[in-house]
Amino acid sequence: MPAPLFHVVLVEPEIPNNTGNIGRTCVATACALHLVHPLGFEVSEKACRRAGLDYWPRLDVTHHESWKHYEVARPPRKPGAWFLTTKAPRTLYDAPFQRGDTLVFGKETRGLDESILAAHPDQLLALPMVPQERSLNLATAVCAVVYEGVRQLVANQAVRLDTHGRLVLPTSVEDGE
Asked: Which one in 92, 132, 139, 173 has a CA-CA gap of 20 to 30 Å to 154?
């Protein structure tokens, strides 16, 4: 299996439908999903079946007990980690996404913890929005960021599209760089 295009990290997601939609985006774009606990819902096999998440078995998903456990298992590397927040001084269009980058998103009600943001000030990104709006739905935001990353990877020839517009992935990260 080729290395993931991106690692999507959800820190303490609260709404199961958002995580389900994000999982489907990850499957469709060959991204890995990291779920940082605590979660606001159950992701047992039975719960996934009941929710109709037939794609979940094809998802490359890793669970992390906490943010600290995540950092030990997969420390956010610079510059390959990006933290999405409405508090960022620049937008996702300013980031040079590369295959294997980490895209970190916070919980629906509060976003990323201030301590995480403070630890990565040069890696903060926002989606452009009109000033009076507070944020986008988490699943919508993840999808927008992942597809901007895919667009950049295609433009940089790290991945390509076939004649039907489907992603063609190199068999290893080295093949795509």
From this structure: 139
Nearest to 63 by CA among 90, 44, 85, 46: 44
Element holding 31 (H helix, E strand): none
Q: What is the pTM (predicted TM-score) of this model? A: 0.91
Local confidence band at 108 (pLDDT 50, 70, 90 cut-offs): very high
Concatenating the DSSP letter of every residue in 104-173 gives: EE-BTTTBS-HHHHHH-GGGEEB----TT-----HHHHHHHHHHHHHHHHHHTTSSEE-TTS-EE--SSH
Determine the 3-state secondary structure of 62 from DSSP: strand
The rounded distance, in Å, linking the Cα atoms of 105 and 9 is 6
pLDDT of 167 over the 90 cut: yes
Q: Which among 27, 81, 9, 17 is positioned nearest to 52, based on CA atoms?
A: 17
β-bridge mates for residue 160, sequence order: 168
